[in-house]
Input
Amino acid sequence: AQKVTQTQTSISVVEKTTVTMDCVYETRDSSYFLFWYKQTASGEIVFLIRQDSYKKENATVGHYSLNFQKPKSSIGLIITATQIEDSAVYFCAMRGNSNNRIFFGDGTQLVVKP
Amino acid sequence: EAAVTQSPRNKVTVTGGNVTLSCRQTNSHNYMYWYRQDTGHGLRLIHYSYGAGNLQIGDVPDGYKATRTTQEDFFLLLELASPSQTSLYFCASSDWGGSQNTLYFGAGTRLSVL
Output
C-alpha cells in the first residue's frame, strides 16, 4: 500500500523565521518521487519542489529545501526566511515507479505572522 | 509553464441533476487526473487517464464517470448528483518521465449540489 501522512494540521510562525513541515510516506516501490505543493488562499495549487528517491542530496529551490531521510521514510519541507505570502496549505505527495498515481497527504496549514 | 483549464469555475445543481466538468490541457501531457478536495481529506483521486480513450479508476470513483475524448480533453460526469458530491474539484496533468515530472493543476471547480 502507498500512503502519505502529514501529522501537523496547522503551524504558526513569525515572519523571517525558519519552519519545518513533516511528512512520512509508505511504499514498496524501489524507486519513487516525493513532492511538495502549495495551495494558496485563492485555491490555486502549485508545485514547489521534488526529491527523487535515488538522489542522496537534498533538493533545494529558492528558500525551499527538503530534509530527505530515506531510512525513516521521511521528507520534511524547510522554508527559510518565511514571508507573509508563504501563508498557505502545504501538501506532501508521492509517486512510486510502479504506477502513475500520485498520493497526497492531508496538508499542513502554515500561518506566517508579522 | 503547463496550462490546465477547468470549466465551469463554479456550478450549482440540484440533487439528481446532471453535471459535466471539463478540463483541457495544452501541453500534450499523457496523463490527466480528476481529484476532489474536502476539508479534512486532502486531495482524493476520482479517475485518471493516460491517453485518449483510456480510463483508470481512482480511490473514490462511486457516482462519477469520466471520459478522455482527446489528448487535451478530460471530462468528469455526475449523472445523478447528490449532496455528498458537493466539493472542490481539481483536474491535473503530467508527462511523467519528462523533464517536468510533476503534476500541473487547474484552478478548480467548486460544485454545490443542493
Observations:
- The CA atoms of residues 15 and 82 of chain B lie 5 Å apart.
